[in-house]
Design brief:
β8 and β9 form a beta hairpin. α2 packs antiparallel against α7. This protein has 3 domains: 90 residues, no CATH class; 87 residues, no CATH class; 143 residues, no CATH class. Strands 1, 2, 3, 4, 5, 6, 7, 8, 9, 10 and 11 form an 11-stranded mixed sheet that branches. 33% of the residues lie in helices and 17% in strands. The chain starts with 29 loop residues before the first helix and ends in a 7-residue tail after the last helix. It has 14 helices and 11 strands. It is of the alpha+beta class and 399 residues long.
Length: 399
């Protein structure tokens, strides 16, 4: 408290620092989260999907534990111990969706979760997502039903600490990490299905099952709207998922797909076979052109083509970027890739495999200039050592 004198512009007195008023909270916005959980029946939907996690029906349920942990993250907490800090906030406990949840309680119940419980959590979240779609205003519901529907699959490494932490492993960079593997509804940024892998696991090993669960978790109204409009649900994945299994699974589910292509020798050959007059200006992208090659990897679905995008950049702009270590072996270059008088400019290329659709080029995908894949990860912990070395060492192509 500041005591002021009667003279304008002058302040004097003492500033008193005391115990905080228990009727105040820094997490007042949690009231909106609590009301949303009630409208969606989130805890009830999670409990119905997860089922019991202990023999006695008392105390907190699995749905309450997950909701309480998510609420703590929204309140700014990063670790389980944050639950105790929130529990000490008397006013905040009046507006949180799961009051009274302690760190020890959440830890003990979380250890009881099995793979069956996590699959049930996905089912519960799918039910809550369907309720959300049913509560939307008619204009927004029609926009989601009539617009594109894209499932975006991605994985990233999250570094953790503690040698006894379960379910994690060291990456090729020596970091102890877990690898969240998430399939999300891209237009709403809602997770549909997820796996938690160790840092040394390849996400391609479980991506087909993940895609199947994500499709099942899409709201029925959205799937019916896409079918009524004659549009296919789309799959989007980067070069970390360059595998025929995922492409065949998408084709079997009657999905359109766009999967980043690795910079292998066959891709460079396909690039060299594209005529100069085949390039077209990309919509919504400055100094960018796209071209389509009929190349299709062996055993990929019929109708798959290679979409290549090249971007012209000022060489001075590239010089301001951090230097990249020279590769131990030069990457393969297509025939005729020597300088051809481009006026001091360099054209960088990206490769993407998808069913033959000339207009499926989205502005903003993959803004980096070194990689030849769309939207590369900022962190490369999830990449195998050899692939990461090839990606970092990509030389600039001069056409």
């Amino acid at each position: 408290m500041v005591m002021t004198s009667g003279t304008p512009g002058r302040t004097r007195g003492k500033i008193r620092i005391g115990t905080a008023d228990p009727s105040l909270t820094a997490a007042g916005g949690m009231l909106a989260v609590t009301e949303l959980c009630g409208k969606l029946g989130l805890i009830e939907a999670l409990d119905a999907g997860i089922g019991p996690v202990k023999q006695r029906r008392r105390g907190f349920t699995g749905g309450q534990v997950l909701t309480g942990m998510a609420a703590a993250q929204l309140a700014g907490e990063d670790f389980l111990v944050g639950l105790d800090r929130l529990r000490a906030d008397e006013a905040g406990q009046q507006v949180t969706p799961v009051p009274g949840l302690a760190t020890s309680t959440a830890t003990g119940l979380a250890r009881r979760f099995t793979a069956r419980h996590w699959r049930g959590a996905e089912t519960g979240l799918a039910a809550a997502t369907a309720r959300m779609a049913g509560l939307l205003p008619a204009e927004r519901a029609a926009e989601l039903a009539e617009g594109p529907v894209t499932i975006d699959i991605d994985a990233t490494g999250v570094e953790v600490y503690g040698s006894k932490k379960r379910g994690v492993a060291c990456t090729y960079q020596g970091q102890r990490a877990g690898r969240p593997h998430v399939a999300a509804w891209a237009e709403t940024e809602i997770p549909l299905a997820a796996d938690l892998l160790a840092g040394d696991q390849d996400p391609r090993s479980s991506v087909v099952a993940l895609l199947g669960r994500a499709l099942a978790a899409l709201p029925q109204a959205v799937r019916e709207g896409a079918a009524a409009a004659g549009r296919k649900i789309a799959l989007r994945a980067d070069a970390g998922y360059f595998a025929g299994d995922l492409a065949r699974a998408a084709a079997a589910a009657d999905m359109a797909f766009a999967i980043g292509a690795k910079r292998i020798t066959s891709m460079w050959r396909a690039l060299a076979g594209i005529a100069e007059d085949a390039w077209r200006d990309a919509t919504g992208m400055e100094n960018a052109q796209v071209a389509v090659s009929p190349y299709r990897p062996a055993e990929w679905p019929g109708g798959t083509v290679l979409l290549v995008r090249r971007v012209k950049l000022d060489p001075e702009q590239g010089l301001r970027r951090p230097p990249v270590a020279a590769p131990p072996h030069p990457a393969p270059r297509p025939a005729g890739a020597a300088d051809a008088g481009t006026g001091g400019r360099t054209r960088h290329l990206r490769l993407q495999l998808h069913p033959h659709q000339h207009r499926r080029v989205h502005p903003g995908q993959g803004r980096g200039v070194r990689a030849l894949v769309p939207a590369p990860h900022q962190h490369r912990e999830h990449l195998p050592r050899q692939q990461a070395r090839r990606r970092a060492a990509a030389p600039a192509l001069r056409l």
